[in-house]
């Protein structure tokens, strides 16, 4: 085990005594029922007004100290729970296979990459439900940075001693895994917004991702803060300042245009953005059309670069890209990405193998491979420096050609713009109840865009948003529902 990654085990034995397997099953079913209930409540939020109900406080769930023999899991496998591999060539799976076949110590269990739901919100619910039930079905979690606080403070994951005195990791991704002064997640993939521009079409609309999911929350936050308004403040970004400088906030949220990064020009933001997620907007950008409207610009994550560059339609006859990328010119982008976290319920014999795998996945070699072949943005300063200096590996297809993969020059450009965006990006609130805030804020912002929520109602949500970050459920609907504009 390397010196910079050492696990710390916390002795929580005896917390609930001997819990039998049927208790685990009951707890898991209860947690899943709660997930379905929350989803039903979210779906009902757009419906008719409901009778006023008192606000309630959410208590952290009790995590049972399940006996190891009853917690499930497979001793012969080290399970890495993650979302869909959205890279152009399933490169994460290839990295795991290389570890299993050539690099892992013989005594270590084989690692298994378990892909859960592609939806960030659903994946979080799946991981949390099993953790709350005391299950050790997952050993390592590839956790979205937005959910680290929830999983740390609720006891789903355990601290890791991470020695980064050499400043290997980028500051933002490193701090995203730090909760209450301890490191709970090792940076794995970084993310920050990029602006994509068609080079063969200078006139056209701008696409955001404003669908009713976490990407909608991210894009609405960016729309306000990149536009000169402010929603969040404080070291942990948990102070709601929505009511300050209301004119700036409202102007940014309702502006029909977006100023192009680094220019004085602007483009119309297409209303079709309300039905767009990351994948749908990439398709529309490729086709240069959405809902019959021409598309020339798009906000998306860096991984969209590879998804576009791998499509022959996005290259001209000389194999030059038909698009370019730019980092936002101002602060206000939202930091995304993921960390590698260790389940609190991992069996002791798996802990050292888990740390060895994490060490490999965050090595310069793997980080460069994930970037060049899959489009996952690195978390290591060293990798960016190599590409910015004209070095670093490019990715070649198995048949020896690199026609559909980014060239070294293209990767250098992508690395430069991505790093700049990451350094400017701001994290989402470090609250264990971020999910409640996200759902409420998105409902209010979407209501404004759908002409269903007035200015007065939108700014009246500030108190409810603050309450959501502190674990108070806002049940007196229809706040930010249909208020009869």
Report on the architecture of this protein.
The chain has 485 residues and is α+β, with helices and mostly antiparallel strands. It is built from 16 helices and 20 strands. The protein folds into two domains: 5-16 and 62-192 and 336-424, 3-Layer(aba) Sandwich (D-Maltodextrin-Binding Protein, domain 2); 194-326, D-Maltodextrin-Binding Protein, domain 2, CATH 3.40.190. It has helices at 21-44, 91-103, 120-132, 148-153, 171-176, 214-226, 246-254, 278-287, 303-309, 348-361, 364-374, 381-388, 408-424, 434-449, 455-460, 462-469, and strands at residues 5-7, 56-57, 77-82, 110-115, 140-144, 160-162, 178-179, 182-183, 186-191, 194-198, 205-207, 232-233, 239-240, 257-259, 266-268, 289-290, 293-300, 323-326, 336-342, 472-473. The strands form seven sheets. The chain has a five-stranded mixed β-sheet with strand order 4-3-5-19-9. Strands 10, 11, 16, 17 and 18 form a five-stranded mixed β-sheet that branches. Strands 1-6 form a two-stranded antiparallel sheet. A hairpin with a 2-residue loop joins strand 7 and strand 8. Helix 14 packs antiparallel against helix 16 (462-469). It is globular. The termini are far apart. The model is unreliable at 6-54 (pLDDT under 50). This is Extracellular solute-binding protein.
């Amino acid at each position: 085990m390397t010196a910079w990654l050492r696990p710390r085990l916390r002795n929580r034995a005896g917390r609930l005594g001997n819990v039998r397997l049927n208790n685990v099953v009951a707890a898991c079913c209860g947690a899943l029922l709660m997930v379905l209930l929350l989803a039903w409540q979210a779906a009902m939020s757009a419906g008719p007004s409901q009778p006023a109900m008192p606000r309630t406080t959410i208590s952290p769930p009790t995590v049972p100290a399940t006996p190891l023999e009853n917690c499930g899991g497979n001793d012969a496998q080290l399970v890495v729970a993650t979302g869909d591999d959205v890279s152009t060539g399933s490169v994460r799976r290839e990295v795991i296979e290389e570890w299993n076949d050539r690099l892992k110590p013989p005594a270590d269990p084989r690692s298994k990459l378990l892909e859960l739901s592609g939806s960030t919100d659903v994946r979080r619910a799946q991981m949390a439900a099993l953790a709350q039930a005391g299950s050790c079905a997952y050993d390592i979690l590839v956790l979205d940075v937005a959910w680290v606080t929830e999983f740390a403070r609720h006891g789903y994951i355990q601290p890791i001693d991470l020695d980064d005195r050499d400043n290997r990791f980028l500051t933002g991704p490193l701090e995203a895994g730090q909760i209450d002064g301890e490191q709970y997640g090792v940076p794995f993939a970084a993310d920050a917004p990029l602006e994509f521009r068609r080079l063969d079409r200078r006139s056209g609309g701008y696409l955001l991702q404003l669908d009713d999911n976490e990407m909608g929350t991210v894009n609405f936050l960016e729309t306000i803060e990149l536009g000169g308004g402010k929603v969040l403040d404080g070291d942990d970004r948990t102070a709601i300042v929505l009511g300050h400088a209301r004119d700036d906030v409202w102007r940014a949220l309702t502006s029909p245009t977006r100023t192009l990064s680094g220019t004085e020009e602007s483009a119309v933001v297409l209303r079709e953005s309300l039905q767009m997620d990351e994948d749908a907007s990439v398709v529309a950008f490729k086709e240069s059309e959405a809902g019959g409207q021409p598309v020339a610009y798009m906000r998306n994550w860096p991984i969209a670069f590879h998804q576009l560059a791998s499509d022959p339609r996005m290259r001209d006859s000389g194999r030059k890209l038909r698009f370019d990328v730019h980092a936002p010119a101002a602060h206000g982008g939202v930091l995304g990405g993921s960390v590698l976290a260790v389940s609190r319920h991992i069996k002791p014999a798996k802990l050292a193998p888990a740390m060895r795998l994490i060490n490999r996945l965050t090595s310069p070699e793997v980080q460069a491979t994930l970037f060049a072949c899959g489009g996952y943005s690195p978390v290591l300063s060293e990798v960016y420096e190599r590409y910015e200096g004209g070095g670093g590996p490019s990715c070649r297809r198995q048949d020896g050609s690199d026609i559909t993969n980014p060239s070294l020059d293209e990767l250098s450009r992508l690395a430069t713009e991505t790093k700049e965006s990451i350094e400017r990006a701001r994290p989402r609130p470090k609250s264990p109840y971020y999910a409640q805030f996200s759902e409420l804020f998105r409902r209010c912002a979407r209501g404004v865009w759908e002409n269903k929520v007035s200015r007065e109602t939108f700014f009246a949500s500030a108190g409810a948003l603050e309450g959501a970050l502190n674990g108070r459920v806002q049940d007196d609907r229809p706040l930010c529902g249909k208020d009869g504009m």
